[in-house]
């Protein structure tokens, strides 16, 4: 580098050469010995890397989420996704009832949820929106995939213009990025919690078999996501979303051996199950 200065200066020049800077600013910063100019260039690069959402970095080359307008990540995602989230009330043996959550994935009323929510029932009712006085909609079970604990329902008597969730690409999800969980636990409707993607599961377990071939998925494909976004009974079958409101997983269980962290079936497994069942 010009001007000498040892290892620290060498490192600073290497860093400036790698940062996302306009060509003219990069040239001036590299040619100058003014520390404040280099700092200004570094701050500009940091702002370039920064997402609109609370300082999370954009590292996968896609545009940042839409402006929040002062809302939090969870609030923006909830506004986009909740219209496509349903409350599921299955009738079990001896007329016992339970409660779970599901996601509308087609305008004509296909709903994805967990098999343990709706797989063994004598009847299923679904509620749209947050108004408890909304008349229930009957649903029938289309099919299940026991290997991934997924079930697909069909809402009956709908008009075919329902809002749907957007299924994301699990392979593009990064460790530590925002994760927003939505569901309907206990007596509450439309609960939203915020956390991060804490880990990926690629091991041979209940989530790691391709529903189409029943063979183990490739090790490079995440089959389940671990998150510290709070889950509660009743949120099973609900979506786990990224900061753009794309569904990256279906919430499935709470890990008691990991301080209550949640596990979600990855969106890629959900897509495979949908193509097989529906």
UniProtKB/TrEMBL annotation:
<comment type="similarity">
    <text>Belongs to the peptidase S1C family.</text>
</comment>
<keyword id="KW-0645">Protease</keyword>
<dbReference type="InterPro" id="IPR001940">
    <property type="entry name" value="Peptidase_S1C"/>
</dbReference>
<keyword id="KW-0378">Hydrolase</keyword>
<dbReference type="InterPro" id="IPR051201">
    <property type="entry name" value="Chloro_Bact_Ser_Proteases"/>
</dbReference>
<dbReference type="GO" id="GO:0006508">
    <property type="term" value="P:proteolysis"/>
</dbReference>
<dbReference type="GO" id="GO:0004252">
    <property type="term" value="F:serine-type endopeptidase activity"/>
</dbReference>
<dbReference type="InterPro" id="IPR009003">
    <property type="entry name" value="Peptidase_S1_PA"/>
</dbReference>
<dbReference type="Pfam" id="PF13365">
    <property type="entry name" value="Trypsin_2"/>
</dbReference>
<protein>
    <recommendedName>
        <fullName>Serine protease</fullName>
    </recommendedName>
</protein>
């Amino acid at each position: 580098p010009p001007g000498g200065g040892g290892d620290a200066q060498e490192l600073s020049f290497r860093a400036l050469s790698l940062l996302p800077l306009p060509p003219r600013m990069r040239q001036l910063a590299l040619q100058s010995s003014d520390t404040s100019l280099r700092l200004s260039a570094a701050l500009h690069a940091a702002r370039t890397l920064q997402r609109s959402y609370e300082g999370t970095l954009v590292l996968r080359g896609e545009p940042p989420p839409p402006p929040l307008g002062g809302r939090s990540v969870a609030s923006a995602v909830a506004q986009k996704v909740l219209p496509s989230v349903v409350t599921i009330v299955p009738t079990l043996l001896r007329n016992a009832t339970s409660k779970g959550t599901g996601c509308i994935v087609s305008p004509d009323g296909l709903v994805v949820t967990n098999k343990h929510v709706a797989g063994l029932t004598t009847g299923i009712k679904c509620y749209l929106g947050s108004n408890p006085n909304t008349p229930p909609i009957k649903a029938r079970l289309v099919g299940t995939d026991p290997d991934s604990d997924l079930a697909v329902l069909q809402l009956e008597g709908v008009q075919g213009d329902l809002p749907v969730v957007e299924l994301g690409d699990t392979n593009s999800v990064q460790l530590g990025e925002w994760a927003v969980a939505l569901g309907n636990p206990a007596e509450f409707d439309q609960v939203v919690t915020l956390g991060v993607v804490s880990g990926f599961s690629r091991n041979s377990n209940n989530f790691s078999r391709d529903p189409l071939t029943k063979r183990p998925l490739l090790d490079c494909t995440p089959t389940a996501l671990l998150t510290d976004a709070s889950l509660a009974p009743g949120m099973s079958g609900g979506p786990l979303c990224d900061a753009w409101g794309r569904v990256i997983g279906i919430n499935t269980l709470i890990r008691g051996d990991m301080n209550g962290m949640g596990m979600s079936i990855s969106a890629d497994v959900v897509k495979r199950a949908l193509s097989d069942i529906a």
